[in-house]
Queue: 4 jobs
Job 1
Amino acid sequence: MRSRKLTFTQLWLGAVAAFAVLLQPRAGHALVSPRTHAAAATLPRRRRPARATSEDDHDECVIIKFVTGNAMKLREVEEILGMNGLPLPLEMIDIDLDELQESQPEKIAAAKARLAAEACGGPAIVDDTSLCLNAIGGMPGPYIKWFQQSKVELHRLLTDYDDKSAFAQSCIAFSPGPGAVPLVFSGVCNGTIVSPRGGSGFGWDAVFQPEGSAETFAEMSGEAKNAISHRSRALALLAQHLKGDRDLLVDLCLEYATDPVFLEDRVHYRET
Ligand SMILES: *[C@@H]1O[C@H](CO)[C@@H](O)[C@H](O)[C@H]1NC(C)=O
């Protein structure tokens, strides 16, 4: 049981770390607060009972929630984590989290991961994806989700522009539990906006043709997309940080395990 004082200290450290994140240069780099970095590297390993070989035997009930309303995105994230040595079943949690009005996606993702961990009382991953069209000053960026919901035809936005270039950015934020400083990693994939082609994938995959490819994401197999995508780059950085070590990840989650605190005034549940 953690005391209130410690929780306050953690929040304060969190605020300091969040500030440190602000001061970091932008780009496809990992934004890792020093405290969490040190914690992950030096965490004392708990003595755990020998694990049964059964696949169903979840490590001490550590279940990581992935915040999304999109089952295909969830599956993609599981596949990518598996490719990177972290074969973890994630549990989908479809909740609306307060979103910062903010143009820096790393900060949006970090804030959402904090809220998600508090709401779940356990580890949570959020993915904040931006799609930035260079001809129109990087819009819609993090607002892509609302453009999609309004069925805006992205390729038509660029009709009057010669520059069809764009980049996709995924910010993955992982919180091992309530009160923890989230780890935030960003991955970028450059490409071009084209007329929709292909039937696989999801979201705007059909209008995004990544650099060096003749196919849109929606024309590619899942493996081909995951070899180059913004999301796989960001998740690979997270996996690297955790040394592709499933036990390290589980220990980190257990360190912050607590009872769920439902922040009903801040989080609206669509499903339970
Ligand atoms: C994307 O393009 C920008 C500039 O056009 C470049 O600086 C960056 O390295 C590229 N990133 C990737 C992942 O190709």
Job 2
Amino acid sequence: MLACRGLLLTCLLLTTTVQSQRSCTDLLPLDLLARALPPQGQTPPTQVGHRFGASSMWSQMNFKDVTLDDNRWHTVVLAITGPYASLTIDCGLTLGLQQVQSFPSSLSTRGSRVYIGTRRRWRGRFTVIQTCSHWSFCVKGLMRQLVLLPGSDATPRLCPTSDPSLAELSVPNVLKSTPLQPDQEGPIYPYGKERLDYVEDYLDLYTSSETFDVEIFSIPSEGLFMAAANRDSRPGSGIYKWTEGSFQLYQNISTQEARAWKHFTIDEKVKKRSWFWSSLLRDSQIFLVVANSREAEPELSVIYRWNWRRQRFLRHQTLETHSAVDWEAFSIHNHSFLVVANHRRARDSNHNIHSVIYKWNPNTKLFEVNQTLSTSGAYDWEFFTVGPYHFLVVANTFDGHTTAVSSTIYVWLDGCFQTFQNIQTVGATDWETFHIDGRFFLAVANSQKVSSRGPSLYSINSTVYELNALTQTFIRFQDILTHSAVDWEFFTVGDEKFLVVANSHDGSSYSLNSVVYRWQGYEGFVPVHSLPTFGCRDWEHFSTDKGSFLIYSSATSRLSKVFKLRTY
Ligand SMILES: *[C@@H]1O[C@H](CO)[C@@H](O)[C@H](O)[C@H]1NC(C)=O
Ligand SMILES: *[C@@H]1O[C@H](CO)[C@@H](O)[C@H](O)[C@H]1NC(C)=O
Ligand SMILES: *[C@@H]1O[C@H](CO)[C@@H](O)[C@H](O)[C@H]1NC(C)=O
Ligand SMILES: *[C@@H]1O[C@H](CO)[C@@H](O)[C@H](O)[C@H]1NC(C)=O
């Protein structure tokens, strides 16, 4: 379908790009295919060429000395404009050819057929022949991806670097935007946008104890801050300030086995009076709430408020929680809410308890209980909005017997949250919500499958779900193998979208790679980078004037690491 649409555009615009590509990181399909390929030297030479013409007059041209037959993947870009054709392999030197006959300025595509991947000619290899009415081109070899692009030459877009392994495999945006003008003057050149090149070690940050969560936020006219949820009560958790390209400890806050921090603001109308006037001003109050997980009565979590005069966070309110592991803050119709993930009650070690939604009372300036929701070992809450609807989703980890429990999505109706959909999860620890090109997604981190006999399984699938507008439900979009996944973080660099997963354990080790996946359209999320982590618990993306960064915190070590996202 895509090819056909591309083909149509191609024919109208008289330009073709063929791309088949090797990506150094997505190894699995490459290895599988490698086994299916005949060994080197036993195959006919690869031909790259194209031919076209009216039914009576064919013109055929071949690029000579093209070596593609080496059992590796290659990026092949073929561009045709007027009498010119160019071929670029692996983003190297471009070979040019001029032909006697110009590519026709208009072609009928009615009744055209497209063949991709016939195996007729050579056993064990695919011959790819692509036909557009009287015009065709062929690339012989095994083709992994074919992209047709309008424009006179897509080489600069596909080959921004001379290292072909960095070239990208994706659905070009140009294919998604229609209609294209067939009589558009001149070639369509892509414009440069920032893109992720590689990820670089930037900073080692030693916190006072193991860190279960980092929360990045900014305070207007103060700067960028990070709250680290640390295990030990003394000196407790650390608030860090980004100073000269690094996080410096700014404030110690005593916490009880802190598991998470959440930052939020509440806009208040405050009356300001002076001797001759009185007016209402909008004032932004900055809060931080900590999830304390220590199972000792009374179990309390604390809300802190930023004091502008003293330039630090001061205690504002305490709330009874039960082994709290997460807070989510949100607002609906200008009412501010907080919801806590109560994981387990200390008194009876029960996981099937209530998690509580609190609502801000502007008169008392305190949070008050608004609704309770029954959860099973709740681990994470996420709030999201789709169109006019507000949702909350909980990650239920464990019901006391099994981790195969359902996690629930709630929708806000008639002044309270009501069940919208239950999704079967396996030790769910995190939900991440994001949208791409008008499509809405939810990703769950599944951490552990407990088995009545034998050890637990940690290498299990985590799943990305997509909201289906027709059925009005979330439907499985992609399974991704993870190793006791405990966090997903979605981020963008330029136009590109990424997900990074916190892989924390595989059953024997905590020293595992966390993986960065790039959104590649119909291929979904494809692994592009592996980052060595130790007991990885949380990933956060943030940007400063020094660029774009990722930070991860460790639940088994004092070392948190900052990585810099290098772009080109
Ligand atoms: C935080 O606590 C540590 C350890 O007690 C201490 O060395 C440090 O000076 C404190 N930092 C601040 C900013 O209070
Ligand atoms: C929320 O507050 C903003 C700013 O005070 C105001 O413009 C807006 O109308 C309010 N919305 C609702 C739904 O009350
Ligand atoms: C919870 O908050 C909503 C929105 O303000 C309100 O309509 C509802 O009455 C509240 N429920 C309770 C039990 O306070
Ligand atoms: C993960 O999902 C894929 C695709 O749905 C499936 O083929 C595979 O068996 C699953 N793996 C595990 C470990 O569940």
Job 3
Amino acid sequence: MNRRLLIFVAACVPGSSSTPFIHLLCMPTWTIISPCEKDYDHPMRMYIFRVMQTVYRMLDSSNEPSSVDEGKHIATLGYAMSQEKPGSPDLSSVVIHFRLSTQSVTQFVVTTSPLQFVDMARNICIPVPCDLAVSVIADIDEFVFARSTSFRELNNPGPVEECDLARRIWKQVQAKRYHRRLLQQEVIGDIIDIACLRTRSPRCSICDSNLIHCNSCQVASCESDNCPGSSEPPLTWCSRHEKEVLCFPCLEEWGCTGEIEKCPACKSWCCTRNMSSCNGHPIDIQLIPGLPGSKSVLPNLIVAYAKSERVHSPKRGCCMKCELPGWRNCNSTLCWSKTICPECASGGVACLCQEVWACDLCAEHSPGVVIRCPRCNRPFCSSCSYIDECQECHRAHLCYDCAEEESDVDDGVMMERPKFVASCGSCQAKVCDRCVSDSAFSCSGCSKRLCTSCRMSLCDDCRQWSGSDDEESETSGDTGALDV
Ligand SMILES: *[C@@H]1O[C@H](CO)[C@@H](O)[C@H](O)[C@H]1NC(C)=O
Ligand SMILES: *[C@@H]1O[C@H](CO)[C@@H](O)[C@H](O)[C@H]1NC(C)=O
């Protein structure tokens, strides 16, 4: 906004809490919190919010904001300049105005010089609580000072540009703080000549790695974990907020409260709930094994998994960016665990083309994931293109090898073989003679034949929603199209 406003700010004379006087101030202001500025993410947003919370708690507790996005308040940040010596004017005070969005005039003002809260309507001043003054207000003051000196960098920036500029400035402040912290901790005292400290450099003064910043508060740390300048606890890439590097206080504010763990693979910190875990292999699953064509398998399987005891309680894996050796993902969407630890994965089955791996239970019971040749019993998947199965009842034909030797086969397996008489109009998956007559298997719009998984989406031809509501609506595991 950078509106240069001539405004009158009532400020109290220090020491006299009842006789306000009027200053004429030249003051750029920026709206930081308002019902309509939610998205700009000014780096001072959380800081101003904390001040706002304190002010309202102390002076108007019924309107204390509960969260920064509540949209009930308007807060503007600005500063006043004073001209005491020749040259460019100095920053004389940070000024923060608060009002409810339903009000047209300022309700409370916070100034740093003098350091006080002012209740405009009641005309009273109260001192700023000490803990707020030394932390949050000091931060705001440092920001405003830096912002006021880069005043001419942009002329009348819009709110978005202003926020970008502010973030850049705050990053520089944080980089400076980083170098200052190294000095204070004497981490770098004997490593490098202090005179060489490039206080505004975006690189670490110790190891020359990049500095990384918390995306929220911009606090800086060395990118390299091994560098003594890397903050402890380190900034973290929460796997939930993949593009966000966040510091711990901000992570908590983002709602990952207290549930952050170190990924055993990449050593970055992640929200616990976004780390993979193995739920433990179910014990004693009682199902009629691999009964092809049995539609009741699906709900039964889910219920059986859910009711079963497990060999161990949930065991933590790693963050979503990493893989731990031996951990697997079962290709069945019905599986009892999204990720499976090496012990529980031991009985699993990979298909011939290695495109699909399924745990022992899903390989046997979850239809269409692993397709076994009824004769040689080798495991295939639909991407192997080495076996055909009916997309509806999941009865499999012989694999292509066994089919070639067909002539010398006359065992009972022959009798079980499905005859493919149709295919899905969308994915071309084959449908056997037994299932072809089932009228539910066509698009309700254009009556094109569709297989179970294609019925779940829009029909390509008529663009009609053909989603079926039959009992089998959980079969996204068998999505692969058969190459005919
Ligand atoms: C992280 O967990 C939350 C809550 O369980 C979930 O909503 C979110 O989608 C997860 N993030 C990712 C990247 O999967
Ligand atoms: C099976 O799962 C793996 C990884 O989880 C995935 O890359 C692959 O595409 C899946 N295969 C099929 C056919 O869905």
Job 4
Amino acid sequence: MAICQMEGSGLGSARFTKMAVSFLIAFFLLYMLSLVYRSSTFDLIGGFSRAIGTGEMAGNDTGASVSEDKRSSQPERVAVDKLLGGLLAAGFDEESCIFISAADLTLNPYNRTLEELSSGHVNGTTDCSYVVWTPANGLGNRIISMASSFLYALLTNRVLLVDLGSDMAGVFCEPFPNTSWLLPVDFPLSNQFYGLRSGNDHSYGHLLWKNNMNISAVSQPPPFLYLYLSYNYDDYDKLFYKDQNQGFLQNVPWLILKSDQYFAPYLFLIPSFQEELGQIIS
Ligand SMILES: *[C@@H]1O[C@H](CO)[C@@H](O)[C@H](O)[C@H]1NC(C)=O
Ligand SMILES: *[C@@H]1O[C@H](CO)[C@@H](O)[C@H](O)[C@H]1NC(C)=O
Ligand SMILES: *[C@@H]1O[C@H](CO)[C@@H](O)[C@H](O)[C@H]1NC(C)=O
Ligand SMILES: *[C@@H]1O[C@H](CO)[C@@H](O)[C@H](O)[C@H]1NC(C)=O
Ligand SMILES: *[C@@H]1O[C@H](CO)[C@@H](O)[C@H](O)[C@H]1NC(C)=O
């Protein structure tokens, strides 16, 4: 509870300064890019050469140079990483960030919100709501949709959790020390993510379609909804961007988001976000 209130109000305009939040978004993108670059170029090259069978030589060479590179730069990297290579000011207060600590994840807010998922209806007593980002398409698509989801989480006071799956393990590091933004592996809906596509029975688009696009006809919010925002989404999925459809989502504790797009600009078209966006990015 404490952790969520910290996140919720901390991300509103009051306690978080404009500067800090806009910085966070810019930094988030930059940092992820740098991590991708640092941790995966060599591995990707090595893996790639092995995968296309360019011979053992290439694989062995790459392996050797990676471990050498890691060993020689390790002490430097620890110092550099603490302040993220100078991106953060020395007094940066990581407590005030959106990310939850790994220990807190196993404590009440997450579990209680999870209970709503298993009970099948929203209790209204949970303190936290979540955006669960799921991967779609290539690495570039994933980075831009992840950054957009981060902005959406900020705007809606949600906690962002990411499902990196197995193919991206090790590509992204944890953004902050002692915190985790990884979706716990035993998350009940994880096995459905892969097949998630437009028109899914549990998608917001489908719910709107079923109710003739009149969301106020839905009395009971579901414990979770899929937001399908990939390039091939249908007209009903797109209704997510209509201002009058955003309010309903506030009562849905779990939003499972799948997108391969940089959808952040669309968020600027939603009038109810504009004030907060103005404070975040100005
Ligand atoms: C590559 O490494 C493997 C295992 O370490 C070794 O058996 C093999 O001889 C190496 N190949 C070359 C070309 O160095
Ligand atoms: C919360 O859920 C996690 C993961 O399922 C579990 O490991 C942990 O023990 C739970 N904590 C509580 C307080 O129930
Ligand atoms: C609502 O949540 C409270 C506290 O977690 C719990 O005691 C109660 O049984 C829940 N009610 C329903 C209908 O799930
Ligand atoms: C991370 O957690 C460990 C163990 O709980 C603690 O010793 C360490 O100081 C923490 N580091 C930071 C940066 O909070
Ligand atoms: C939407 O549904 C609500 C509640 O059922 C109803 O009062 C309202 O008239 C409907 N609006 C339209 C445009 O159909």
